[in-house]
Amino acid sequence: MSESVTRVRASSWGSLFDCAHRWEGTHLLGLQMPSSPRALLGTAIHASTAAFDAARMAGAPITPDDAAGVLVDTLHTPPYDVDWTDDLTPPKAEATGLKLHTLYCQDWSPRFEFAAVELETKPFRIDCGRGQVVELVGTMDRSRIRRGAGGIGIADLKTGATAVAKGLAKTKGHAAQVGTYELLFEHTTGETITAPAEIVGMKTKGTPEIAVAEIRNARDVMVGTDQFPGLIEIGAEMLRTGLFPPNPQSMMCHQRYCARWSTCPYHE
Ligand code: SF4
Is the minimum distance from the CB of 18 to ligand 1 under 6 angstroms? Predict the structure, then answer.
């Protein structure tokens, strides 16, 4: 039987398990829509903090001010269409972004020893059966590999209006993405992840705030155990059958965030 290979960005795989119907629309059917200003703010913060961390890791550190130029450039020349709103105007986004960027570079980055920043991964093949193969490709967007007393672990930066609550980063809904990155890291480098993953949450609404929280055993969520099937097996079944279930209770089930909104019959 000849093989049919579908390539998807590794960084998108986790969102398959939020609303699979939306994931199919965006990543298999190619539906696009303008991004939200908060998504662009996230992109800008990720780009500037990655520039700072990568320089520090390479032994040629740059100042937070130098790296902040990346944030400002990204906001002024977005890499995709953005639907600006009164809630978050470009000046407000820049002010919030610069506060979070500076806070991260001065107070948080120095706490980590990084082994990789946004690592380019080796393609990871998932056999879905009946000749269908999914290949996860691309970089571990927005993630770092950190070394600590417990060994190697993932540090995944998450920005958002509610990314921090009660002094902790929000971890809910992130296990699939983090588990994917743990698998990809091991597949790419041959090294084993031994430390729990850390989510570094950066709150972009209200007072800018950064906090961390751990996710343990994220890899098990992807590969499964003898007690439950992993998300890889469940995702492979969706791709093999072509049945991508909707989730109208998803936080992203809104015309502002879902490119399939206008034709999807499952939301209210
Ligand atoms: S409108 Fe809601 S249920 Fe439909 S695809 Fe989008 S997120 Fe999923």
Answer: no
**Ligand 1 pocket member 20 (CB < 6 A):** no
Are 10 and 140 a contacting pair, CB within 8 Å? yes
Q: Please report how many Cα atoms fall inside a 13 Å half-sphere around the Cα of residue 26, on the Cβ side.
A: 20
- Is the CB of 92 within 6 Å of ligand 1? no
* Cβ 264 under 6 angstroms from ligand 1: yes
For ligand 1, is residue 22 a contact (CB within 6 Å)? yes
Pairing of strands 132-137, 4-9: parallel
Residue with CA at minimum distance from ligand 1 atom 2: 253
Q: pLDDT 10s per residue in the chain (268 long)?
A: 788 888 888 888 889 999 999 999 999 999 999 888 999 999 999 999 999 999 999 999 999 999 999 999 999 999 898 988 778 899 999 999 999 999 999 999 999 999 999 999 999 998 888 888 888 888 988 889 999 888 999 999 999 999 999 999 999 989 989 999 999 999 999 999 999 999 999 999 999 999 999 999 999 988 899 999 999 899 999 999 999 999 999 989 999 889 999 999 999 8
Taking the centre of ligand 1 as the mean of its atom positions, its distance from the CA of residue 36, in whole angstroms, is 16
Ligand 1: atom nearest CA of 25 is 5
Residue 75's φ and ψ, nearest 5 degrees, are -70, -35
Backbone angles phi, psi at 239, to 5 degrees: -70, -35
